[in-house]
Specification:
Layout lengths: L19 H12 L2 H5 L1 H7 L6 H26 L3 H9 L3 H35 L9 H9 L14 H20 L1 H28 L4 H9 L9 H14 L6 H7 L8 H33 L11 H15 L3 H35 L3 H20 L4 H31 L3 H11 L7 H28 L6 H24 L19 H9 L2
Helix pairs in contact: 1-9, 1-12, 1-13, 1-15, 3-13, 4-5, 4-11, 4-12, 4-13, 4-18, 4-19, 5-6, 6-8, 6-15, 6-16, 6-17, 6-20, 8-9, 8-15, 8-16, 9-13, 9-15, 10-13, 13-14, 14-15, 15-16, 17-19, 17-20
Membrane topology: Multi-pass membrane protein
Subcellular location: Membrane
InterPro entries: Na/ntran_symport, SNS_sf
């Protein structure tokens, strides 16, 4: 079977990464994002410190890597973006399974709308770092002078020029990269940005380690609380962190794997991607908590008494306060916010590629047309909702529902349908082993088909019950209905509409390679080659 088999029946050959290194760097660039820097350190600290690394590694090995392999196998074997791949995987049931692909595409579309806003904030604060524009009150500067969040309203259409302009620039850059294609756009950005990100963050971490109080910060992070291991919520937090940080179960790795050559090692690069992502998270934890230790030292308090050790508060309130206190603060701030912007951008283009590839294959249009069309619509919606004075509020609620309900539901449905309903686990395991140097055993099917849906299903049900009964933060229920449950409605509608749109060229005239069950002569050749 040729490497140039057309996608979705189109006449043009399928794009490809230039090689294994390009794929690995791009996959790592997708996985390493904002959550590595501002989510992992806080999650680890609040869930047992050093002891958290045990459930974290267990979750990585038993759920993160197995589902990553599942994404790779589906995308590579069925050679398409999520809707194409799932339709082909489903065989006679392909029509309804295609809707799962469009559900994942819509998740990526929604995430792209607000993810760009955070990158725009990071770019703004990169500039602000040089003159410490936030002054002595970073919180007041962020929420008041910069974002201009109103005190008496949760929804306005009052635009904030300081957010709108960098947001528009981020969208222009993303559209250009996506229009250039897989090798000249996505891969080239990751080949440049990922090494820059690692170098910049290493410099930042080394500098942080020599700050007064850094040791106290590291002790606060890594001192193990062994009793935490008896708390089921700590284990759930570990699975949640691994799941969200690896970019799995919403189309990214399915799409990325589809651009690999047919004869490509899948599992060994997957291990490199997974452990590189986790290594960066631990590096981020070291840098963040060494820096928090310095802030606690300057304020004369314990690290446990500090506020804002995760999320937006950590990045845009706590870190600016630290930068103002430390020698050489402007350079440190520029490194931090530059790293944040680069990590965000490499993840952003991977999220948007899920949507671009799906539309390109469904309508059989050029990459440039798909990038400009989808990118233009996304940019307008992103600016409309997330460059206003209430953009942060909309972002917070939409992110909570999209990630904790949308992506988790996608993973649960995918694992159950593939392993139990269609019973394609043995075929996908065969595909991985036929091409890869690191074989996966029958236990892989058990991890994907039993452990993953059980853990993720518990997470999903528990989160839905909490959001229904307790709401979220102090937001009014009507607002949660619009931007929270409304986001889930958008995902479902996107799945239905995407499936109903007719294909320009049918994707069904396709033969997966290598053949399954394996041909007898192929089995003998494999034995002879051992």
């Amino acid at each position: 079977m040729s490497d140039t088999t057309p996608a979705a029946g189109a006449a043009r050959p399928r794009e490809q990464w230039t090689g294994q290194v390009g794929f690995i760097l791009s996959a790592i660039g997708s996985a390493v994002g904002l959550g590595n820097i501002w989510r992992f350190p806080g999650v680890a600290y609040e869930n047992g410190g050093g002891a958290f690394l045990i459930p974290y590694l267990v979750a990585l090995i038993t759920a993160g890597i197995p589902i990553l392999f599942l994404d790779y196998a589906i995308g590579h074997r069925f050679r398409g973006a999520a809707p194409t791949a799932f339709r082909r995987l489903g065989g006679r049931s392909g029509r309804w399974l295609e809707s799962l692909g469009w559900f994942q595409v819509t998740i990526a579309f929604v995430i792209g709308l607000y993810y760009t806003a955070v990158i725009a904030w990071a770019l703004s604060f990169f500039v602000f770092s040089f003159d410490l524009r936030w002054g002595d009150d970073p919180a007041g500067f962020l929420f008041g002078e910069y974002l201009r969040i109103p005190e008496d309203s949760v929804f306005t259409l009052d635009f904030v020029p300081g957010v709108l302009i960098p947001l528009a620039l981020v969208w222009i850059a993303a559209i250009v990269v996506l229009a250039l294609g897989v090798a000249k756009g996505l891969q080239r950005v990751n080949v440049v940005f990922l090494p820059l990100l690692v170098v910049a963050f290493l410099i930042l971490v080394v500098r942080a380690l020599f700050l007064d109080g850094a040791a106290d910060g590291l002790n606060a992070l890594f001192t193990p609380n062994w009793t935490a291991l008896t708390d089921p919520d700590v284990w759930i937090a570990a699975y949640s962190q691994i799941f969200f940080s690896l970019s799995i179960a919403f189309g990214i790795m399915v799409t990325y794997a589809s651009y690999r050559r047919r004869r490509s090692n899948l599992t060994s690069p997957g291990l490199v991607v997974a452990f590189a992502n986790s290594s960066f998270e631990i590096l981020a934890g070291i840098g963040v908590f060494a820096t928090l230790g310095f802030l606690a030292f300057r304020q004369g308090v314990a690290v446990s008494d500090l506020d804002g050790i995760a999320g937006v508060g950590l990045s845009f309130v706590t870190f600016p306060a630290i930068v103002s206190e430390m020698p050489g603060g402007p350079i440190f701030g520029a490194l931090f916010f530059g790293s944040l912007a680069m990590a965000g951008f490499t993840s952003l283009v991977s999220v948007l590629q899920v949507v671009i590839a799906a539309v390109q294959e469904k309508l059989s249009i050029s990459r440039r047309a798909a990038a400009v069309g989808i990118g233009g619509v996304s940019a307008v919606l992103s600016i409309l909702f997330f460059s206003t004075t209430t953009g942060l509020l909309a972002l917070d609620v939409t992110d909570m529902w999209t990630n904790n309900i949308g992506i988790v539901a996608s993973a649960v449905i995918m694992t159950i349908v593939v392993i139990w309903v269609l019973r394609r686990g043995p075929e996908l395991r065969y595909h991985l082993n036929a091409l890869s140097t690191f074989p996966v055993g029958p236990v892989w099917i058990g991890l994907v088909g039993v452990l993953a849906p059980l853990v993720l299903g518990y997470m999903l049900v528990a989160r839905i019950i909490t959001l229904i009964t307790e709401g979220y933060d102090t937001y009014p229920f009507w607002y949660l209905g619009v931007f929270g449950w409304g986001a889930i409605a958008v995902l479902v509608i996107g799945a239905v509409v995407g499936t109903l749109v007719p294909w320009r060229h049918s994707p069904d005239h396709y033969r997966a390679w290598p053949p399954y069950p394996p041909e007898p002569d192929a089995s003998r050749n494999k034995e002879a080659g051992r």
